[in-house]
## 1
Amino acid sequence: CMTADVSNEAECAAVVSAAVAKFGRIDILHNNVGIVDVDGDTTKIDSNKWTNTLNVNLTGAMHISKHVLPVMRDQKQGVITHVSSIAALCSYPLIAY
């Protein structure tokens, strides 16, 4: 078992390397990343919480995808999926989310 902070690119690269070392390939990457650290009134947003939310929710998916894609391209196959919660369709006071 291995854990990583998806907002840290080096940790994402390490997870991908460890998976390839153990399994020899990566067939599926399922990006199901999301935190809620900012909500409420836009005029009261804490910039550090905003940045943290975007780093985890958006940049995190990019970091891990960036390091998995070369493996999948070399294999000439693989699937990356990205999911969202119902908040993508409904009005929630979760501004950065």
## 2
Amino acid sequence: MGIKERKRRDVSKMRQRILRAAMQLFAKGGYENVSMRRIAKKIEYSPGTIYLYFKNKDDIMLQLCYQGFERLLDMQHELDKITSPKKRLDAAGRYYIDFAVANPELYELMFGTEEIIKQPDPEEESVPLRSFRKFEQHVREWLDAGILADGNPEAVTISLWAALH
């Protein structure tokens, strides 16, 4: 392994260490419990060191949020293997609820922490929006199969998404 690969690996390890510490602090006391100083104390580094890896607390929390949505999106892509639109949408609802039950702190961070909710860059789709669009794709396929007599795909998607919450 060359020096560049080792440095990339070391940066990745430190970023993950910071993210784990932030998630632990969030799990114990919510968004307000997370601070750069508390993270630094938990990983036994100076607060300034964290700024070498993340811009600020919001950047850290947003990265945790995005990691959660990446996991949810991975589960959603697995549903594409189910050929029946009805069974796929049923499984999507179960997976979504199972994810929330298995990861309550992460779910809270992803959906209940308004301090980190950001509008995506108009030039790119954020992972939360991609996750929503994947769910919308499953709903559209369900509607196209004629399982629901008629409905506006976006309205049905939002209604089902909200009901899952």
## 3
Amino acid sequence: SIVTSPPTPRAGSRLAQTSPALLGAASFACADVLAKVVLNDGADVLTLSAIRGAISIAILYGWLRLNPRPDFPPRARWISLGLGVLFAGNVFLLFTAFATVPVPIAILTYFVYPLLTGLAAAATGLEKITWRGALAAIAAFLGLMLMIGAHPTTLATVGILGALAAACCRVVMLLVTRATLQGTDALQITWYSIVSSSVLFMAAALVARDWQPPATMSGWVALIV
């Protein structure tokens, strides 16, 4: 018999597999920094969130019109709308953290959510956690404590708590999606979540009569980008 080794992935296929993750990470990083620019330019968190939601709705609506999607079950639609409420909390709390502490500190604090997700998934039986994963989680939490402790006089408690609360919202979103929306069209999940979160922000801005956009053109450019 002839034993053959598995084919080596081509460079093009590896790039196709990793480029969405790299693009997503780069977009996330740029959006966070630009959000800080908008906040420093005089905008407040609610106005930033509402305008951001309106732009997201327009982009996703165009995407859905150009790319027809499969049928979306009513149950999945309602779950996705509920996820949008959690997403609104996630966005608002994270932007609140940006407004009060440096962006790198807020993001590093927020990114405890993968660890919290793994622990919560293990506790609820959705996933299993290995001893290596447990050690990695402990090391990450210790690193977070060292990072926060290195800036005891400059960090606002509300910013750290906001980032941690945003992480908790993200954990619940991920667990609910994992448990109830497996195999469901991701673009439509995103669409309904964005719609409900944006409607919440716009309604809150109208009720509070809150309208505090950027003060300069550069702030508006950062917001739109």
